[in-house]
Amino acid sequence: MTSRQIKQSGWGDKWPAPAKLNLMLRIVGQRPDGYHLLQTVFQFVDLCDWLIFHPVGDCSISLKQPIPGVAEVTDLTVRAAMLLKAETGCAQGVCIEVEKNLPMGGGLGGGSSDAATVLVVLNQLWGLQLPIEKLMALGLTLGADVPIFVYGYAAWAEGVGEKLEKIEPLEQWVVIIKPDCHVETREIFLANDLTRDSKSITIAEFTAGQHQNDCVDVVSRRYQAVENALLALSEFSESRLTGTGACVFAQFASREAAVNAYEVLKKSWQVYLAKGINKSPLLSKLEIGNT
Ligand SMILES: C[C@](O)(CO)[C@H](O)COP(=O)(O)OP(=O)(O)OC[C@H]1O[C@@H](n2ccc(N)nc2=O)[C@H](O)[C@@H]1O
Ligand SMILES: Nc1ncnc2c1ncn2[C@@H]1O[C@H](COP(=O)(O)OP(=O)(O)OP(=O)(O)O)[C@@H](O)[C@H]1O
Where are the catalytic residues (predicted)? Predict the structure, then answer.
């Protein structure tokens, strides 16, 4: 696979960083370093943060406006840019502007997606020509969810989420509830009552309807708002947790059915109406190399 080429220069453009859903999530083991071995299915949705890259005259990395509560040096976009510089010795700089739409700590992977967009776009804007595989490996050092956003296709994932196999789940309408709580991924993976020995399943079993998320009981027990959201959504369709939460979602075969649920639920919840997509909108803004 060669690096992907950008149609135009891309400086000053708005670049998408989409959200993801985990359509199922099984914990099938644990590595010696404590990280959990998963089986999961990633699909993107058309809800996005948007990033703009502004040229600067020196080698500095900065944010136009830091996200409240996230120090600039720990922001995943800044860390992604620094990582590229450290890896390549690139002497260029950038000012990154982030239009933040995705809720943080929601299990939608917003921070990871922002980081992936930085890796993919700066790789091109800075003329670094790192291959996608290298960007995915760099991304993995920032977070387990970063590689899928670099990869850009809906996928069956194993390992900690870095072993990816392209699949094409149905692109259905989705209603997502963001309960009024912030779930730390780390807290859930540290829980004593987390199932860590699920039986592995096949893609065919997932396609036939095996949608279990092994984190759901642990998260529901600790966060009443998540349990309530799962219950509210289940009035309309099968309700599921994405990642370690806090967001819960349900898929709908028609836009009408999704809108109906959305209209009812928005009276009581922070709710999003979205569409599942198997190709990341970030990829759609790029010309594809030899993929
Ligand atoms: C739950 C998922 O969202 C599913 O897509 C991801 O596995 C989480 O990915 P992420 O948010 O990028 O997570 P990271 O930032 O890499 O890890 C946060 C913390 O969760 C724990 N963690 C994460 C992923 C994993 N497979 N096993 C873990 O035990 C680790 O303690 C880690 O310190
Ligand atoms: N650019 C960023 N956007 C969002 N969060 C960031 C960013 N940089 C650092 N963070 C930190 O990362 C934490 C997790 O944010 P994120 O939005 O990725 O959560 P999430 O949706 O639960 O992700 P995941 O599904 O990968 O666990 C935030 O609480 C915040 O402290």
Answer: 20, 145
